[in-house]
TrEMBL record:
This is DoxX. InterPro entries: DoxX (IPR032808), DoxX-like_oxidoreductase (IPR051907). The keyword Transcription regulation does not apply. It is found in: Cell membrane. The keyword Magnesium does not apply. The chain crosses the membrane at residues 94-119, 131-152. One of its GO terms (cellular component) is plasma membrane. Belongs to the DoxX family. Signal peptide: none annotated. Keywords: Cell membrane, Membrane, Transmembrane, Transmembrane helix. It is a multi-pass membrane protein.
Length: 158
């Protein structure tokens, strides 16, 4: 039958790794771009050879306004929520792209998505369901062969 060879090709580890990388890239790009809308740049704390600057994100006034007046986040002060979300939207995508601590990063994205769905944009369930599904796949399967996690055999998922 035609379906069996197709299923065999799609179930190969290489194809799965391409799919996992694509999922990592998709989630990382959405959250990185969202994080970039929240900052006016970074306060310079560290210079790495190669002219790479690392620092703490400087939040836009509009970001603080949104977290104070628009987003209905309970339990935490709006400034802390804005800082945590912005930091997570910069760190977790980098981890996902590198495939480093993939399952942890996917869990972070999963939790952020739930918070956004429940408290911020409850009508965007179609988009959030996509993010949740990708996060779950990465939590279950890991980053695949094209992830730094793959270099650690003891951490590989069979």
């Amino acid at each position: 039958m035609l379906i069996n060879p197709f299923r065999t090709i799609l179930s190969s580890q290489w194809i799965e790794s391409v799919a996992l990388f694509t999922g990592r890239f998709a989630l990382a790009s959405v959250f990185w771009l969202s994080g970039q809308t929240k900052v006016d740049g970074f306060s310079l704390n560290l210079m790495i050879p190669g002219n790479i600057q690392l620092g703490w994100p400087v939040l836009k006034d509009s970001t603080l306004y949104l977290f104070e007046h628009e987003y209905n986040l309970p339990f935490i002060p709006f400034t802390l929520a804005a800082q945590m979300a912005t930091l997570a939207e910069h760190v977790l995508p980098v981890l996902l792209l590198m495939g480093l601590m993939t399952q942890f990063a996917a869990l972070g994205i999963f939790v952020m998505t739930l918070v956004i769905q429940i408290f911020v944009y409850p009508d965007a369930y179609a988009t959030h369901a996509t993010w949740l599904a990708l996060s779950l796949i990465l939590m279950i399967r890991g980053g695949g062969q094209f992830a730094l996690d793959y270099l650690f055999p003891s951490r590989r998922i069979p």
